# Entry
Amino acid sequence: MSLLEEWDAGSGYQDPGQAFTVVDDGLGLVPEPSFSSVDRSIFGLQVAERQTSRGKGLALAIAAAEGSVTVVTSRAYLIRYDLTQGTNPVLELELSRHADANVRGLWVSAEHTIIALQLGSTYENHYIHANWKKSRVLSKLKDVKVSCIGWNKDTQSESTTGDILVGSLAGVLNEVVMDEKDKKERVAKRVFQLQDSKDPMTSVHQHRTSEGQRVVLMATADRLYIFTGKGSLEAMFARYNSPDINNYIELGGGVSSSPLQLYYQPGATQPEAFAWLTQPGVYYGDLTPDTAHHTRELDLLKNHRLLPYSSSRSDAPTLPLSVALSQYYLLLLFPSKVQCINRINGQVKQELAIPPSRALQAGPQTLALASDAAEGTLYLMSGDNLQEITVHEESRDMWRVYLDQQDYKSAFRHCKTQAERDTVNSAEAEACFGDGNFVEAARLLGRVTAAVPAFEEVVLRFVEADSPKALQTFLQTKMDSLGHEDKAQATMVGTWLLELYLDQLNRSLLEVKGQLTVASSNGHSQGAGDTADGSSKALPAPDQLTQDLRAFLKRNVEVLDVNVTISLLAGYGRLDDLMEYATYRKDWEAVVDYLMQRGEADRALPVLRRPGVSQELWYKFAPTLMLLAPAATVDAWMTAQPPLDPPRLLPALLRFAEDGAPPECQAHALRFVEFCIHHLENDDPAIHHLAAALYCLEDQEGPLLQYLASARDLLGRPLYDPQTALRLARQRNKLHASVQLLCDLNLYEDAVVLALSFDMALASATANRPEEEPALKRSLWLTIARYIVQQHPSQDQEVAIKQVNEFLRESGGVIKIEDVLPLFPDFVKIDNFKEAICQSLEDYNKQIDQLKGEMEDATRIADALRKDMAALEHRAATLDLSEECARCGVAVGEPPHATAGISGGCVPQFYLFPSGNAFHGTCLASEVMQLVPPPQQQRIHNLLLRLSQVAEGSGQAGAHGNEPPAKVADLRHSLEQEIALEDPYCGEIVVRNISKLFVRPDEVLEVASWEL
# Structure
């Protein structure tokens, strides 16, 4: 049964639930509108060109493409307008001068144009390129009655048309390729012939899908064919030579012209919708771009329907002349109007009245619609007038149209304001309420921001519906939709939601507990999701509810009130969730505190290692961590980045430096202290005090002695407190360490006494330690000797004497026999000391001989010095007067510069030093004055001044100030003692000035000039 037969049977080929009330007003299709059609206009007419034919006859055909409009007149003239550049034509040429030339068709695509002409009884088809000034006849298509052209935008370029389809009135489809440079068509071959229908082809379109599939739509007077395939056109059409393939839709009728129009989004390569103008009505719908999931060609059409012109079969309705498509509307062209029908609901939205024109009397060909798919522009040719059909906010009110169709998703997609979205959500929610889908209704109502329906009304509806899940969904959606300015309301809703989660979780736990109790009483196990009678109960498991609760807390951590949330979680006993909540808030202190209370130090350490966790928490929880997990804690301290501050961890370690502390904790505390000392090279005294205390607790004394010997600064001073360490060592009976510490405190006498109590060798070594204090060293050895003598009674004096003799040899001469003898009783026989006494006498003789030799050497040196001094008194040197002064560079035989200082009179002319340096007397005085202290500078100045005032050759200087007259020789001698005792360039005076500051602190201006 064809679609027309289905319509006649009363079913109608329409969407389910879609009905039209049709009224015949003598003009055509008038569906009953669901809302006023005279509201704000969407479509309008705007004159683009008033005389399109430009006096070349009547405009018979029009086509638009790529922003240009092409017109063919009754005198076979082609005129092209580029409306983007103005109303002046860019091309005007004569196609034929035949007197009976008649235009049968015009097709334009970008730079390419094809015109079908009837010249009397013959037919010509012309091709024009945009760059040509003259058309070219397609010789291979001579006498072919071309009725439609199908452009291929995928293979088309500026220079070639690509493989286009050319349909004819004879039902033949040809493939043609034309190139700008060729003189005739490059390819022209038949690819398809209608087998069971000789109707002329009225329209043909082709395009490619995203999968590379070719799709061809071809229309005749009563059929709409769909062809699909890959490869060439010839290969694709070869599949459809069999009459068994049903790839068409048939609508009865005898309309000679049934144009098929496609709608492209501007810039798109695939069409979205189609409209086929037939005698029964307008057949239109959408085209799916997906061909991979469809097995039948007709499956490419979706939402397709037939919109009849009239419901009366006896009346002859006025048929539309043409049809065009916009994004949402059908535009039907009637002799006196353009009717705009919404494609979604089939209702007339607007009617555009066509202004009367004298040219319309020439026939219906002068009234036509043209569509520019690339620009998305529609044109109306009315006589000689070209008018653009303007479109203003075409999508306006489309949301309401979809809403009336109960297509809520499309309605929501077309909403532009929040009020429109609220209306759509409310309507869809009401529908969900009616279907019992309370959860979806809750989700939709939660998005509504309008005051109606009120929040309280919605909540009561869900409470009355006894749907806690829906109420929970509504509250969650409402909270998610609230903005930052609604923080208080979001917090209130979030708190309510939290209570719902906790209550639901609590009830679930009680139900599971009750089920387990019943199962235990019945003597068999039962699943948590089963009831007592064995039936399944669809309740969420506690584990799932716990996950939902934690997800809620994590998602809304910024919204929930901290104190209220903690109170609720603690009130329901959800301590684990309380810890998770603290984690979401990044309240690491609360998390670690909770883990410490549970004794889970191993879980707390990873928390403390997090990059964003404050290091202050390490110091706060260090004591508890050391008690619970000393090994892991010390490992964490040692690997912490950035490194921790060891002194701040000492309070956690001090308790382990006492007796009775856990041995494991002591060992790991010492491990951390050693890490600080050896790896971090920490010299903090507190660290070393703790190290000494921990080493004192060790069973073996070796590590303690090793530490005491190594823990010293560059000057050899101990880094620990020796007094504290000594106290700890004595308390824990560390005798060797005590001796070492007594030596560090310079208490050598006490160290020797202590060493004598358990180790004679240690006492001897201790006595040798004060190297720079011979008297103290002698006293220590005497202490050891006294101890040896006192250890043996009078009857064992021989043993004591033997040990003392060995002791004297061991002391290395620090003490002698005469120092030891007073320690023995008076009745001791001196024979026992014979060897020691003889040795002592020999040592004295050696010392006497050594002193004699030293005295003889000193005498010889003194004699040599006296001789050298006598020789120096008579030493003389020859000086060339042309030799330069070492300071000013002027010859010493000439006067120095005036700036050198005081000169003239009896001031010595020059001085010569054994080093070879010669100076003017004035220059030498000035040089020395820069190196000596101020008092000496004053004395030199006074001497120079007095000598300069004495005439040269005079032997007596007069009184000066408070000074009496003096001989010139005496003044010169005094001056020589002040300035000429040594060379100022290489004498001792220069060495003494090495540490002298270049700039004195009192030279404030000089210091300020060097500041940056």
Q: What stands out?
A: Confidence is low (pLDDT under 50) at residues 1-38, 524-539.
